[in-house]
Amino acid sequence: MDKHFTITIHDDNGVKQFNLHQFFKQILFYVVVFLLTLGLIGVGTILYLNDSVNQIELKKDGVEKAYEDLQTQNNLLLESMTETQLLLTSKKEELEELSDSLSEIEQMIGLKPIDEESLQERVSLAKLSSSQRSTLLKLIPSGTPVEYNGITSKFGYRIHPTLNTKEFHRGTDLKAQMDTPIHATADGVVEWAGFHKSSGYGNLIILEHVYGFKSYFGHLNKIVIKSGQFVQKGQLIGYTGNSGMSNGPHLHYEIRFIHRVLNPYYFIKWTQQNYDEIFEKENKVPWQSLITATSRLTYQPTLTQPSSQLAQKSKEK
Q1: What percent of the chain has pLDDT above 70?
Q2: Torsion on CA atoms 261, 181, 134, 206, rounded to nearest 10
Q3: Domain boundaries defined on the chain
Q4: What does the DSSP 8-state code read for residue 125?
Q5: What angle in degrees, to the nearest 10, is found between the helix axes of 119-128 and 22-108?
Q6: Which CATH class is domain 138-316?
Q7: Whether the model pTM is above 0.85
Q8: I need a surface site. Which of 104, 106, 214, 244 has the fewest CB within 10 A?
Q9: CB atoms within 10 A of CB 199
């Protein structure tokens, strides 16, 4: 029996029948299946694309939100940068004013500004100068006790000018004419003021200073202070002479630290300008601990004339 089916069509003209083979039936089936499959694929694709579009929209919204947040942060950053720039400008002006004021302070205390030094170093140096330096230079012998005209005999071993024997010279003999004014080289108290028989110094003044320092002034002609009296740096204490074992008018000047004799020349030349040199040249004094101790003191520096200038004025009088 042949595989076929009949298609019946009814219309106004009557009934018509068509017989189709089974093969065409299968083709029609596959076409219908294909169309249904294609339709399902289309619907799935549409749904997928619609979901993707929704995801893209969400990401777009997130990007726009992030962009808005970034713009807000950027505006805040710009405002902060503007405020910082204004603050830096203000601080720069303050530092310039501080530098100008510091230069004035440096000139007042005898320091010359060094361009290579940072502002912080200059401030530290000025702070040291206005406190520790001024204190040390006032309390510890510094500068010349008479108008400086040279040295006739240095510190150290020499042939004694009157005994003609080799001995250790404990001080420095400063050249000076008779009755040259002598001024204290540091604040102190008078330990001795009078004729000293055993030393050969003749009329002698011994000043006791802080931290174990003493200064000796020998061969004087006249003494104008008394034992136990307090004296200030630059104060007139006597006049040079030729008393004791001396071969001519001059000033024998000694400095001692807890009974150790020191070279007075380093202290005579000790000023603000060469402040650090003495720490290298004179090693018999524990300077570091001394500076540490001095840093605890409160001393308001005043503009005073060096002892050499005071000596010159007294001489002119």
Answers
A1: 74
A2: 40
A3: 4-71, 138-316
A4: H
A5: 30
A6: mainly beta
A7: no
A8: 104
A9: 14
